[in-house]
Amino acid sequence: MNHKRQGGITLISFLIVLGVVGFAAFIGMKLFPMYQEYYSVKSSMKGLESEPGVGDMDPSKIQDLFFRRLYINYSENVKPNNVKFERTDGGWLMRVSYEVRRPLVGNLDVVGRFDNTQELTRRGGSTE
């Protein structure tokens, strides 16, 4: 008789694989909201770039528009002191730099540092 030996995964191997996949999913659940917020900050900054006359606006007005956009996206980690403006030839250079800290396991935390810049150079259109 020709017996074929069955190959496969043992219960211990299955539990190890399940543990690794579970831990990766757990880490992903901790990181996803941080990066989702980062992309909403980037899209809010990109949206400001297309705002008419943004290159001529006062920084406080630009910051107000920026936080209105972030409020819609439920951002909670970006504060007004994280937003800086620098005057350029064509308007403003906006920089948003902030840090997010989330508890991971016990006394271990996941820290994300995010830094993004956007040129705001669009001038107001003429009304001729």
- Report the span from N to C terminus: 96 Å
Number of helices: 2
H/E element order: HHEEE
State the secondary-structure class: alpha+beta
Q: Percent of residues in helical segments? A: 40-55%
Poorly predicted runs: none
Any overview of this molecule?
The protein is built from 2 helices and 3 strands; from the N terminus they run ααβββ. Helix content is 41%, strand content 27%. The chain starts with 10 loop residues before the first helix and ends in an 8-residue tail after the last strand. The model has no long low-confidence stretch (mean pLDDT 89). It has a 3-stranded antiparallel β-sheet, with helices on one face. With 128 residues, it is of the alpha+beta class. The protein has helices at residues 11-49, 59-72; strands spanning 83-88, 91-105, 108-120.
Task: Show the helix and strand layout.
Layout: H1 11-49, H2 59-72, E1 83-88, E2 91-105, E3 108-120
Antiparallel strand pairs: 1-2, 2-3
Helix pairs in contact: 1-2
Summarize the structure in short:
This protein is of the alpha+beta class and 128 residues long.
Summary keywords:
2 helices, alpha+beta, 3-stranded antiparallel sheet
